[in-house]
Amino acid sequence: MINFFTQVSFKNNRNIPSDSSKQNPHVNPNEFGCDLFSAAFERDKSEINSNSHKNISPQCVHYTYFFRNVETLNFVADYIEENFKNGTNIADFGCSYGQEAYTLAMLIKKHNSDKKYKITGYDIQPDTIKIAQKGHYKLGGYGHEIFLLDQTADSNDLIGNLKQLFNESFNQASTNNFDTRVNDVYTLKPDVFDGVVDFKHGDISDIGHNLNLDHNTGVVIFKNAWYHLTGYVKYIDPKNVNFTIVDDVTREINKSLPENGLLVVGQLARDHIYDIDKPVRKIVQNEKIINVYDSSPFHDILIKNGFVPVFYEKSDVREGAYLPSVWKKTNSVSKF
């Protein structure tokens, strides 16, 4: 197991070509998975339609990068290796360009030579799925992926291990094959994840239809995207947020998962909508005392629908706050 809990910065600019961190005007967003829309995402949060997640602008759904929430995904990798020894399927909804689906595939690769763990990424936008299927990526991630471009050896075990996992699965693309001027475009190596990773058009709000033929799904991922369902943005009073669709979706997820199956929800504050004025709960996780924020209508729904938290990750906005990013299905499921 890789120790992902050492404090490190991925924004490592050592020995990176001088132009590799600049936005490349020659990269076509229709050909590459990258975070060209990330700045627009930050600007336009407040324009999210509170009535329907399907009306959200494309720039609001593609903020992603390799090894995002790696602590959570590493927990998931270890969990399925321990609890699904004969294999299982992982359904990754809201997969965007596929970086996080491939991240999980890299983390479980050493235990998946027989391809018993299969990952299917779903997204509501067909054009996004086409990009994910190509496996071409322009690294950037607002600095989060810069460490992958560093060609020198790294003394930090975490950074070194992640770079090794990435380089075993992706090749640096030839500049003769792509319309780009910098060496930060990578392509998936041929056959490396054939029969392991796939991408399809699908919507989490119709999860029952998407998984009705799959009776072997042990993990459902819908990470850092619940605000698309609730329409929540920071200026809305949480009391006025309609959680009906969250209730419906989590019930369907419960029906799709076996006993001890996992639901991965991520650690965005605007998904959890927790009460910062309520007392925190202190727990020990990985030999470290952390402050957990439990007071949330989102958490109440998950608990009502038969889930308990099993792993916590730092909130994206509040220093020292941890939120439950992974939930396990229990036996004590509410009657639907």
Structure description:
The protein is α/β, with parallel strands linked by helices. It contains ten helices and twelve strands. Helix 2 (70-83) crosses helix 3 (99-108).
SSE topology sketch:
Blueprint: H1 38-43, H2 70-83, E1 88-93, H3 99-108, E2 117-123, H4 126-134, E3 136-138, H5 157-169, E4 170-172, E5 185-188, E6 197-201, H6 207-210, E7 217-222, H7 227-230, H8 244-256, E8 262-264, H9 269-272, E9 281-285, E10 288-292, H10 297-304, E11 307-314, E12 321-329
Parallel strand pairs: 1-2, 1-7, 2-6, 7-8, 10-12
Antiparallel strand pairs: 3-5, 4-5, 8-12, 9-10, 11-12
What is shown here, in short?
Helix content is 25%, strand content 19%.
Give the integer mean of the pLDDT values. 79
Measured as a percent range, the helix fraction is 25-40%
CATH class: Alpha Beta
Q: How many discrete structural domains?
A: 1
| Low-pLDDT regions | 3-30, 34-60
Total strand segments: 12
Secondary structure tally, helices: 10
Q: Tell me the overall shape.
A: globular
Output the radius of gyration: 19 Å
CATH fold name? Rossmann fold
CATH superfamily: Vaccinia Virus protein VP39
Q: What structural class do you assign from the helix and strand content?
A: alpha/beta
Assembly type:
single chain
Series of secondary-structure elements, N-terminal to C-terminal? HHEHEHEHEEEHEHHEHEEHEE
Distance between the termini: 38 Å
CATH architecture: 3-Layer(aba) Sandwich
Mind summarizing the main beta sheet?
Answer: 9 strands, mixed
